[in-house]
């Protein structure tokens, strides 16, 4: 399969963070990765390929080189007992050794609507569902679209500490948020601010004359074949059910929901599957909750990545080298970038104007909203040049701060050389986004080269 085909599969299946992880897990299993668990003892072996899932919505996968357990000794150890010689400059010493730990991170969540507890709302014969906005969604793009429901549902178990958690995805469109007709809002084309509580309530059903209220939970219980009273809680995403497709005169674009950030998840899974290094560690981290700040138990702002790396090093007999290897490691923060908008080119920087289809963006920001490290950027540039991988540069306009990524957050906890990269796209955070078809192949190629070079 091509990288674009892998991306389309993930876009169709990854309708909630739970389902993004399930889809990536399937690919890893098919490629021979073994699942391990934080709470179990590990028996890692050189050449091993492993993955783990945390709280259903965050996934790590890593590979160990065939020589991982036999770390090379520093030259100074070989010369022990001989007369010391002059040491090279610090920067030269750092540059003389490729990072043994190479990591790439992305996120499994995306802007959307989430269903609240006690969800039923009724209004003039309509049954509606109470929702809240998750992340920085462009609200009006969610109107008049076929919407489904997906996520996970916690139901009663025999042990209070072990509720049964059921992944769920609707097999059809369930909800829609209808626009107000222009006849009732003549100023609509001048711009209308939508109220997140009152204007975004999806319609779920029509009430009969006998009904006084909706009953979403009864419907949900029937869907998963459990008694209504056994549903204790849920995390349900309202997602756009439209499928990805090629657009453009020559099919040069991809139009789809959830390109941010499933483009990166798909590329990272491909890269870790292809990683067959002789030594060191290659690792991908697919974190949840980036769109709301990352500072959660399964986000990049947690200790998960740091603790996982220390445990891997300990399990492979490298406790003494752990600090050294961590400080020599490198991280790619892989998220999307803003392409130059054809109708609003003035929103782009004066001299850095990425365009879809012309390669991966290297993202920089002096404010560190993107993890900017000139040494790391130089490494990525040389990898691209050596692999014939097209790349572009992205920075925000000086008067438009833009967004951020998990790169700066994760690298504050694991102090590795870090650089932000990603495919350039239009309509970021819309219910449906647009990217260049060729850029997915370039992104996957870059992360693969980073892992194997």
Mean pLDDT, nearest integer? 92
Helix content, binned percent = 25-40%
**CATH level 3 topology of the largest domain:** Aminopeptidase
User: CA-to-CA gap between the ends?
Assistant: 23 Å
Give the count of structural domains. 2
Strand order, main sheet: write it out. Answer: 1-2-3-13-4-14-18-16-17
CATH superfamily of the largest domain: Zn peptidases
Q: What's the helix count?
A: 11
Indicate the low-confidence ranges by residue numbers: 70-96
Task: Just name the CATH architecture of the largest domain.
Answer: 3-Layer(aba) Sandwich
Structure description:
The chain is of the alpha/beta class. It folds into 2 domains: 3-77 and 88-110 and 258-452, Aminopeptidase (3-Layer(aba) Sandwich), CATH 3.40.630; 112-240, Aminopeptidase i, Domain 2 (Roll). The chain has helices spanning 3-13, 17-30, 75-78, 90-95, 216-224, 259-274, 304-315, 322-327, 374-386, 407-413, 437-452, and strands spanning 34-35, 49-54, 58-64, 101-107, 112-123, 126-134, 147-155, 164-169, 203-206, 231-240, 245-247, 253-256, 281-287, 330-334, 337-338, 360-363, 391-394, 417-422, 424-426, 433-436. It has a 9-stranded mixed β-sheet, sandwiched between helices. It has a 6-stranded antiparallel β-sheet with strand order 8-7-10-5-6-9, sandwiched between helices. Strands 11-12-20-19-15 form a 5-stranded mixed β-sheet. Helix 1 (3-13) packs across helix 2 (17-30) and helix 2 runs parallel beside helix 6 (259-274). The radius of gyration is 24 Å and the shape is globular. 42% of the residues are buried. Mean pLDDT is 92; it is low at 70-96.
